[in-house]
Amino acid sequence: MNALLARATPYLQATPLLLILGFFLAVPILLLLVVSFWDYDFAGIYPDFLTLNYAEALGSWVTWRIYANTLKYAVIVWAITALVGFWVAYFLAFHVRTATMQMVLFLICTVPFLTSNIIRMISWIPVLGRNGLINSGLTGAGIIEQPIEWLLYSDFAVVLAMVHLYTLFMVTPIFNAMMRIDKSLVEAARDAGAKDWQVIWNVVLPLAKPGIAIGTIFVVTLVMADFSTVQVMSGGQSASVALMMRNQMSLLQYPAAAANAIVLLVLVLLMVAGMLRIVDIRKEL
Amino acid sequence: MEREKRSPGFYLLAGFFGLFVLFLYGPLSAVFILSFQGPQGGLTFPLNGVSLRWFQNLFETQAVGDFGASFGRSFALGLMVMAGTVLVSLLAGLAFRRRFVGATPLFYLTVASLVVPSIIVSLGIGVLFQQIGWRPNWFSSGFGAHLTWTLPFGVLIMFAVFNRFSPSYEEAARDLGASNWQTFRHVVLPMIAPSLIGVGLFGFSLSYDEFARTLMTSGSANTLPLEIYGMTTNVTTPVLYALGTVTTLFSFLVILLTLSTILWINRRRVRA
Predict the structure, then answer these.
(1) A177 to chain B: which residues are within 8 Å by CB?
(2) How far, in Å, CA of A158 to CA of A107, rounded?
(3) Residue of chain A nearest B103, judged by CA positions
(4) Which of residues 22-61 of A touch B (CB under 8 A)?
(5) ipTM of the predicted structure?
(6) Tens of pLDDT along A216-225?
(7) What are the sequence ranges of the domains in chain A?
(8) C-alpha B265: how far from its chain's center?
(9) pLDDT tens-digit readout, A135-161
């Protein structure tokens, strides 16, 4: 009896997780797959087997441009966050000497992550706006005569806000990976005559790769799923896949939104699968 | 005390780090300052006098939607998600310490929960509730939607914690005659308590700020982030900033309380 209980224990312990993720993640996604073949009109959605929703999602110029635009944001934001994240993590892991100071500086970087995304997004408006801090500062100093128009409500603003929101997702895993690098490796490289940049390029960077891969998964999936930053920061002038879905949802065109959801999901999962070939998450924890 | 001299690279990187921190906090402080804008002031600098006008405005119901009620809902939901996340992640973390059939698929389901775009989760749960004829509500469908976001963080953190947890403590307890429950209650639980508090902080904060997953799952009543999201399109007075200041200060307070609790526990343990 006791042996049976012992063998059943892990199953009992894993059940709540399985039930919650099953009902609120797996079932809804399977349902979306089904609903993406359904028919709809202004009044409701009807069981059917149409490929029309996919034809509309993949067959029009407009949606292709929106997908391309979303990928463009993903690539640019990824490149910037990877660069910034690497140097910030490198500074924390290799240049800050005491563990307490490391912890304090790391917390300073982490705290904004635990506050509202929307508020952090809105906070750029008084900085970037037509009469914002940057424009009034530059005109006041006589550097420019007219306020710069493209600071807010532009692709620039979207990318800036995304970098602001998502860089921490890059810093944390890279910092984590760097903290596991044996410092004697760095010393050995130095003793063998390596210069600073050679140490970074040949020792630190290869060993930080798993962290960069995990950060990449976070940043790419967050940017691909973003609709609010694109909506607020572009002032409605740009679109992303998620924003298109959001608009279809508010028009109650659920099957159309479901078809886009499936396409987006396949795209995201392919990217993640590619990243998981580089890194084994279970080993990195 | 002799120390190695700092290289020029250090100062370069320290400067870069400083800029990064400025980039993180600068815009937030602009919002903070502007929320004290005078009664005639607008959404941008300069300050047109200093007043608490916009904070008062926040508590007049007709002026900006129902701030108090939506805050109450977000707070309650945050606490529910926090409790659920801590409990379920702890159990799952314990389960993953042993082998069981289906462990790997369950792990990948958890990772999937992290990478599936939140708007897809929102849409899926919304359509699911519609099809089975249940009315979506923040404490049912909204609660589940938030858990799909907080549980992967919780489970992965517990995974990391138990990866570093030596089983010899439990073996020692068992050798001394402790039962399974006693071993867990008096040996394992106190050792992982700070991590559990951390998981709780994640659960609360992520839920308190989440809105993409709440979009289609909160039913007719708004949570606070949804309320703010709605305000971004139709409110043109600094009351928006006042709300931002209040919720951000609240988040800071929660973080501060949590961190000091963890510090307090650690210090007490060192003394014991």
Answers:
(1) none
(2) 26
(3) A14
(4) 22-29, 31-32, 35
(5) 0.89
(6) 999 999 999 9
(7) 65-284
(8) 21
(9) 888 888 888 888 888 888 889 999 999
